[in-house]
Specification:
Length: 71
C-alpha cells in the first residue's frame, strides 16, 4: 500500500494539479475555509490546533473581501 504522500501525488496527477505537498494542501484548505466562513475558531478546530494563535496565519485579509467590506 502506498504512503499517504504517494497517494496524494497520485490524486494530484489524476486531477492534473501540480504537486505542492500535503502542507500546501492543508494550507489551502484552511485558507479557503476561513475565507468562506470568517470563523477562525472553526478553522482552529478543523486543523486540530491547540491555540488560535497558530490558526491566525490563515486569517489574512484578502483584497476582494477587504474592498467589499469597505463599500
Amino acid at each position: 500500500m502506498p504512503s499517504t504522500a504517494r497517494r496524494l501525488e497520485l490524486w494530484l496527477d489524476r486531477a492534473g494539479l501540480p504537486h505542492r505537498g500535503a502542507h500546501a494542501l492543508r494550507h489551502s484548505f484552511a485558507t479557503r475555509l476561513y475565507q468562506r466562513t470568517g470563523d477562525v475558531l472553526l478553522v482552529k478546530e478543523a486543523l486540530g490546533h491547540r491555540s488560535v494563535v497558530s490558526t491566525l496565519v490563515y486569517a489574512q485579509a484578502d483584497e476582494g473581501r477587504l474592498r467589499r467590506a469597505m463599500c
